What does this fold into?
Amino acid sequence: MVKVVKKKKKPGGGLGSGFRRGASSVETSPLRPYYAEKIPPCEDACPNANNIRRILNSFITAEKRGIAYDNIIHDAWYTLAEKNPFPAVCGRVCPHPCENACNRNVKDQPVAINNIERFIGDFGIENNLKHKKLHDTVYDEKVAVIGAGPAGLSCAFQLARLGYNVTVFEAFSKPGGMLRYGIPAYRLPRKILDAEIDKIKELGVDIKYSTMIGKDILYDDIKKDYDAIFIGIGAQKSKLPNVEGEDTANVFTGTEFLNRVNSGQPVDMGTDVIVIGGGDTAIDAARMARRAGANTTILYRRTRTEMPAIDEEIEGALEEGIKIEYLAAPLKISKNGEKAVKIKCRRMELGEPDESGRRRPVPVEGSEFEVAATAVIAAISQEPDFEGFQQLREERDWIKVDELGRVKLNGEPVGGVYAGGDVLGLGLVTIAISNGRFAAQTIHDRFRSTEHVSAPLSGGSSASGGEELKLPVIKHEKILLNYYEEKTRNKNIKMPVEERFANPDAEITSTLTKKQIIEEALRCFSCASCFDCGVCWSYCQDNAIIKPLTPGEKYKFKLEFCNGCKKCAEQCPCGYIEMH
It folds into this structure.
């Protein structure tokens, strides 16, 4: 039990009229202040544990430290690049779980972290910033990376930074994987993707294009010639809905359709396109078909609430006149000759939750209906193409890895073989980047015979697959919300709908301006990280808190002067100071 000793009150007990520093506190206790390290929720929610707080805090304290914002942005690019070589890409295509977790949600709206990342990534491209190697040592070991998607390129990038010779084998004629062949240019301009991949190649990463494993080169030959292999082949093989009539010339899978369109191949889809599915691939395919002039309808067997696609992309589809039939599932595709002409569907209703947590769709008897179709695009799921890698699968299962990213067969790791990205299971691009980064660290640890540390290459939180740091996450209950002003979130300017159809590949959302991203960064609460607000110093009446002479440094506690009044902890707006 804490013993509280009452003292005689002296004038100036608050910050209003009559307040003077150095006046004694009203009560004392043996508790003393300390900085309680915590993980901000944005970083905890980021699959790659990007150093979001460090970047935003650098904007918040820039003026006090006398640092120009251009220098802040320059350094922020290098901070992002420690873990992610694709900031401009991720700033466009990541569904930003960081923002969903942002404590500012409780106040008004989350900080536009994704847009800040996008601006910083574009700044790096426009100013030709170069990645840096971690040291000058060049190691003898050679590493093969199979697949030039986000997982493979992330692994190659980190290994090249560490000093290894890396060769990437890519089946397609250009790099990027699903970033290039699965995401439309209006969401991810190819010049942005190419610019960030070029920066990786400048580190010495060699990419061999149009090289298919099992056809152009055998997997066993790669295993002989390289000291380690990372497999990042993705999941570019779509599934069909398993209904009668799906084996017709104008029935496409989602990835097949997007691949053909993004490769510049003509696709005869006619005037009425039906897309089956509710994920990002389905939305992208529907919007591409709409840009080609087709009336487009999406069939989804659940409701809008359960749709896994990015909400902004669903809104974009609706803006562009795409119809979404919710609670509808295909039963049969009717043909005229060798072409589909209509789909027989059935209404669904939601039952009990399935293993994914979403409510299971249940057929409604007697609710059949038909819709006309000149083309059908099935975007219901994807899986890897294991041609050439059959020896790494157990029966029909996907590739499995252990806690170090090593491929497992029959519960045991396969020597020198690692994997990551969608070949392990469908996920976000940031998960793929994290997998590649993590595998690069474990490969390096194996080569150098060092003990594996679970914080790959630099910092991190508990979110990125076994990170070393196991600190608590700071929640909004620890934040003094009333300290912070309400501020309107900055939003991108969107291209008018009619202009999108006139130029189908044009990017439809703009990057925020420098002024806007500074304003956005200043909306950050700097959760559990000092931003030099001076509140603790102002409330301390016993000179127990020392203001730093150099802006940006932490305030210091002079504990011999402290009487444990707890005001510094109670009034710390960002929840960084606690008592013990």
